[in-house]
Amino acid sequence: MGHYMFNLLRVLEQFLRFIGCLLLALQYGRLLPRQMISQLHIAGVSSLVLICISALFIGLVFAFQMYIVLEGFGSLPQLSQVVAFGLFRELSPVVTGLLVAGRVGSTLAAELGQMKQAEQIDSLLMWGINSYAYLMWPRLLALLIVTPILVLAFDAISIYAAWFYAVTLHGMESQIFWTPLVFGSIYFEVDVLYGMYKAVFFGGWIGVMSLYQGAFVERGSSGIAKASTQAVVLSSAGVLMLDYVLSQFLY
Fold first, then answer.
1. Cα–Cα distance for residue pair 156/214, rounded to 1 Å
2. pLDDT tens for residues 211-236?
3. Is 0.85 surpassed by the pTM of this model?
4. Which of 38, 85, 100, 234 has CA atoms 20 to 30 A from the CA of 143?
5. Is 180 helix (H, G, I), strand (E, B) or coil?
6. Cβ(247)–Cβ(125) under 8 Å?
């Protein structure tokens, strides 16, 4: 019991020290545009295909399930509202967060872990370069910027997938699908914005946990694998936990 408590306190001390160094690094200069562009590409563009494919099929499946339920109640004109409610508020930000955690979080932890083991981070310190400002903040900011944009892309593709299912496969008139959503719901824009707010917190959590795991990686190749796995697990669990907490405050 004492051994586990000691390890817990040690990890907590490491994490708090990491957060402190990350915050102190804000005083060091400005970000290089080339760094930001590179990290935006890694975090955003490289994840876009995965996000689009997931949004397409989740939109189709959700529309399929809701169509069956609403048809039984004779409420098919509300299909778009029901689908958008579930997608924009919960499914879109949460699924995007989980996908980003798996796709980007593991990459960040492995990349930073390799640099740590190769002593590249120590080399930066020898040259008087703050590694937190030079390496970690561009990656963290990229996730803070990109994750809401990916959620917005998920929203658009998934709702159009639902429209395709209802109109093309079941012959619903396009106007019947769009009118209740665009003109009949006062929460349409609010739900989209709240989903993007959640995404900012998700992106920050994923970035912090992934960079922390990479910064304190254990020696050896198994250390990098362990850091990547822990980054994905902690990021994914945090996304689900934050979703519940934020939902309590936002809705």
1. 34
2. 999 888 888 778 888 999 999 999 99
3. yes
4. 85
5. helix
6. no
